[in-house]
Design brief:
Chain lengths: 311, 381
């Protein structure tokens, strides 16, 4: 720390570190929760998002390393996510196949595959995604480093608003919601329920996988087997918290990102005690939120009636 | 025409065997694409899992905790609950067992081991019991909550092992103080397999009797089949859920205790190797049948045991076996769609369909009052 930082820092050091951390940790949450939100709107749950996220992180890193372009990495990750989402949708469309179980299976498969292919990628350094310096106006290095915002994050924010528009104002969004609320009604109206779910689940996987590429190409910014800390699973809880609204997914992602950044932020100001306990903050937060919002006797507001995870 | 029971039994054997064959074939394609000789890989896997007494011992060593963690998913599945919290219950059971051993370090080893087993089971039982309470009193989805509890349990475990309970002598790998040679869980006489394996066998058998041959088990199956009918017939649904979840957690906690007492002698990060998650796989492969868990655990334990040899001889990464496990899991689930179609249509009629009933909506709803119509539809569809 230089003298200037010490002057502006001190009292502000922790909130700044927390804000900067939240802006770095949130983007993967945002993408994977938007993907899950889209999937769940169609009446399906994809617990396999965790596997998709990790495989996306690995493929994104590998493609960035091979091509030299991080954007190619994001694209490759998106394609892989599309494939995994399609597999999930196709399996769940079979009679007597349960979406929760398939999700757990695909999670184990995705993680195994990522570790299998990703072994040689642990050492090399791939080009990473650039970020915008929104803090360039400030003279404080702490402010400048806190306000580094990833371009893909901005894209994710735009996607959140676009998705809300899609759900509420377009014909396709209405069809999607009908399928999610009552597949019987959708069938009676002549819509192809499996196809709508296929499209939603595949695109959801694509978003989750892009979120994974943010883990490896932005923050923490490398590939290793402990890269994900369960963001793909917490996305399911996050979507419940956000009441299946994409824009509220954005706020929830920032909150979860902040909780995830709590440990590193405290460490950056020299507080190391109980690091492992503080690192569980996002999970405790998720659990507390679910406890506070769930009810034993009624369905959650805004929940697509065809899915069942909220209760 | 075969009798219905015979057809159903034949189907229950044929489907998993067929799925296993298909999975191995797909896996062969996968390793061929990865540049290995598929036949050689199969052979090395056989050598690494069942061919020699050394590899067989390694297989059984891995099967021991899997039997117990699989029960953690299989027992609540009877009530229609999808619990995947075995990993968290296992590490907390291990931690509690170590605490018990330290508290009683001077006592007779039998006393110490008994206390360790009780403490491990109690810690695991309380942990998953908590998820059961959240589910039945507050409607919190048990799949998500047990997953979150896994992360929280591992955080707690690391906090204590790397902090207050750390043995200053453990430099590179933070561990607790050892439980002591005298308190170790030894091998079964005449074999190289430790007593934890026997714990697993006994637990599976007890679970079989409890879930399939007692009033408690029948009541649990009824809750899993139709919660509204269970409530109308006056079953204590809250209590059944709590007991089933606590028992489930206790088995996984016992797995943690056995790993500490028989394998590691202390609590450290070596315990967190995914036995809890692999146990979920075992439970689904066994279709939640407690007795089927035994052979499936040995099979999956063998797949895991062959990883090391594959790495050395076929130069494949150690995650190769995870890929096979993933493929196996997916194919087994997909094969459910063929149930009742291979040997004639009516085999399905009275078949208990765990995976079909596993939607959390059909899980206990502690509401006795008539539900709104939308909810009824959801519980059915």
């Amino acid at each position: 720390m230089n003298a200037l930082d010490q002057a502006t820092g001190g009292l502000w050091a922790l909130p700044l570190a927390l804000l900067g951390g939240a802006l770095r940790v949130s983007p993967p949450y945002l993408f994977v929760s938007l993907g899950e939100c889209l999937t769940e709107k169609s009446g399906r749950i994809n617990l396999g998002q965790e596997g998709t996220l990790i495989l996306g992180a690995m493929i994104g890193y590998g493609a960035s390393f091979v091509t030299g372009s991080p954007w190619a990495g994001v694209l490759a990750a998106g394609i892989v996510g599309l494939v995994l989402g399609t597999v999930h949708a196709v399996l769940c469309a079979l009679p007597r196949v349960n979406d929760i179980a398939v999700g757990i299976a695909l999670m184990l498969f995705g993680i195994g595959l990522a570790f299998f292919i990703g072994k040689p990628l642990i050492q090399p350094t791939a080009p990473r995604l650039p970020s915008l310096s929104l803090g360039a106006w400030s003279e404080s290095a702490a402010v400048r480093s806190a306000l580094q915002v990833n371009i893909l994050f901005l894209l994710g924010i735009a996607t959140a608003f676009a998705m809300r528009f899609l759900f509420e104002r377009t014909r396709w969004g209405l069809v999607l919601r009908v399928v999610g609320e009552s597949s019987d009604a959708a069938r009676a109206m002549g819509y192809d329920v499996p196809r709508v779910r296929l499209i939603a689940t595949a695109l959801g996987g694509c978003l989750a996988s892009m979120g994974g590429s943010l883990l490896s190409l932005y923050y923490p910014g490398s590939w290793n087997e402990g890269l994900s800390s369960g963001q793909g699973l917490m996305a399911v809880a996050l979507v419940i918290f956000a009441r299946w609204d994409p824009v509220r997914c954005l706020w929830a992602s920032l909150l979860f990102g902040g909780a995830g950044a709590l440990g590193p932020a405290l460490q950056s100001v020299g507080i190391n005690a109980a690091y492992n306990l503080i690192a569980t903050a996002p999970y405790v937060l998720t659990l507390v939120i679910m406890l506070a919002t769930s009810s034993a006797s009624r369905t959650l507001v805004g929940q697509p009636a065809e899915i069942t995870v909220g209760r | 025409m075969l009798s219905r029971e015979l057809r159903r039994a034949a189907e229950s054997a044929l489907l998993p065997l067929g799925a296993l064959t298909v999975s191995l074939a797909l896996f062969g394609v996968f390793v061929t694409l990865a540049g290995a000789n598929a036949l050689d890989v199969y052979y090395q896997m056989y050598r690494g899992s069942f061919a020699t007494s050394f590899s067989l011992q390694n297989t059984l060593l891995r099967a021991a905790p899997l039997m117990l963690t699989a029960l953690c998913t299989a027992i609540p599945a009877s009530l229609g609950l999808v619990v995947i919290g075995g990993e968290g219950a296992l590490v907390l059971g291990a931690l509690a067992a170590v605490i018990a051993a330290h508290a009683l370090s001077t006592a007779n080893p039998w006393v110490v081991l008994t206390a360790m087993a009780l403490a491990g089971a109690a810690a695991g039982g309380a942990w998953i019991g908590l998820a059961g309470a959240l589910r039945t009193f507050r409607g919190v989805n048990e799949t998500i909550s047990t997953l979150l509890l896994n992360y929280i349990a591992i955080g707690l475990f690391k906090h204590f092992v790397e902090g207050p309970m750390r043995d200053p002598a453990s430099l590179n790998k933070p561990s607790t103080r050892p439980i002591g040679e005298a308190n170790a869980l030894g091998p079964v006489p005449g074999t190289d397999v430790h007593w934890g394996f026997v714990y697993g066998l006994v637990a599976c058998f007890v679970a079989f009797v409890l879930m399939r041959r007692t009033v408690f088990g029948f009541a649990a199956q009824m809750v899993g089949g139709n919660v509204r009918a269970a409530l109308l017939s006056g079953l204590p649904v809250h209590r059944l859920v709590l007991i089933a979840c606590a028992l489930a957690g206790a088995t996984a906690g016992l797995a943690g205790m056995a790993e500490v007492a028989a394998v590691h002698g202390t609590a450290n990060a070596s315990l967190i190797v995914g036995y809890g998650y692999t146990g979920v796989l075992v439970a689904f492969l066994a279709r939640f049948h407690p007795l089927a868990i035994v052979p499936v655990s040995i099979l999956v334990g063998g797949i895991g045991a062959s990883g090391g040899l594959l790495q050395r001889t076929a130069h494949l990464p150690d995650a190769t076996v995870n890929v096979l496990e993933g493929i196996l899991f997916i194919v087994i689930l997909a094969s459910e769609t063929l149930r009742g179609r291979i040997l004639g249509p009516d085999a399905l009629e009275s078949e208990p369909k765990p995976t079909a009933e596993l939607k959390p909506a059909s899980a206990p709803t502690p509401e006795v009052s008539p539900a709104p119509s939308g909810e009824t539809k959801r519980a059915v569809g």
